[in-house]
Amino acid sequence: MALGRSGGVKLWMYEPFGGAGSWPAGRADPAAWLDGLGRLLGRVDEAGLEIAAVGIGGQSPTTVPLPDDGGTDPVGWAATCRHPAGIGLDRTGQHLAQLEFLSHEAGRPLAGAQIWDWALRCLGAGDVQGLWPGEEAIAGYGERVEVGAVIGHCDGSLGLPAGTPLVSGSNDAYMSFWAGGLGTPRRGHDPGGRTGGLGVAVAAAQRPAELPGYFSPVGGVEVVGGPTNGHGQLLEWWSGVSGRSIEELLTQAEGAAPGAGGVLVLPYHDGERAPRWEPRLRGEIHGLTFNTGPAEIARAALEAAGYSLRHVLEELRRFGVDMDVVCCGGSPARSRLWCSIKASVLEVPVDMPERPEQLSAHGCALAAAAALDWWDGVGAASMDSWPLAAMTRIDPEPDDAYRAGYERFVALGDAAVARLDEPV
Fold first, then answer.
1. Which residues constitute the domain of residue 31?
2. Are residues 311 and 205 in the same domain?
3. Domain with 77 in it: what CATH number?
4. How far is it, in rounded angstroms, from Cα 255 to Cα 275?
5. pLDDT tens-digit series, residues 92-102
6. Tell me: the pLDDT tens digits for 214-233?
7. Do 210 and 304 fall within a single domain?
8. CA nearest 66: which of 19, 14, 119, 131?
9. Partners of 113 in the β-ladder
10. CA neighbor of 124 nearest in space, from 80, 159, 174
């Protein structure tokens, strides 16, 4: 995502990572990440745009294994947030567990870096770790800097002009929070992607003490909520199993009625995070009949993501936190159907970004320009100076099928948790 000084979008683009479909579960090839970044920078150059600064963010927790001599050449595969090492721990604990696993795999102690810090180092930045305000620093991952700081200048790598300011980013969810305008109390955000979640903005002074808070882009406003495991990857899974493309499944799902003909998916294929925090859970499909087809299961997968968000929201409501509207991001938000299902399940309007899969990149561009004083940085008194992502509002269409489906979703999930500790 390239933003101009006036705030207009000059260029937006996407480059797939070569070979990603064959990567082992929970692993990734850092060389492919760097190749993709180089191709993106090349496209900016082809467009004739002059780059004033570059900001980079990425998925978290993801650890790139590095030699302990300060070099940037990765030592084998990276471990991503889907890797079992550290699952169920907090972000810092998962990073350290990933590094311990990678060191054991290599047979010697390794250094580690967050994915975006490593990419910036490859362009010429120093040994730092870019963090959102309030995030805990990870021991051994570099000197702490907060998002939006100039941390060095490009050395000419990947065709980026030497001397270009390099700006620290943060994890993709936080960067999408910024671009999606999560700075107004009672506004929510679902970052989407392969996994999802729900964050709701609250005035810091009114945050319930029982709920941990994260800094929002706006000073005096915090975000409460949590991540969920099953989201875009649900549809990817069903696409692989059914042999149908995601586009075909979305078309079929649109022809199925709310409630998916009684089919309900528990999206716990890799366990669940908020609000259950139970990594031992596994996915389930309920209500299958001989009349069930791919369309009903596809529809049930879309609805399951909505029910997961509703589950987080209902937990927040128990502590007095409510939501007036939610911005949906990531590739799932490219589907108007999926956004409308979320709106109707949550019974609140959804803001659907014009380029939902670019929200986190938009946040990185905001950070880069804030470092140049084009507009305010994180912690500003309001969102007024920021050119936020363009959005379309989708109003909810509440349906008794969704209300009953949500109650059934919670009850079946409770039963699944109860079975975990039953004698075998």
1. 2-175
2. yes
3. 3.30.420.40
4. 31
5. 999 999 999 99
6. 999 999 999 999 999 889 99
7. yes
8. 119
9. 64
10. 159
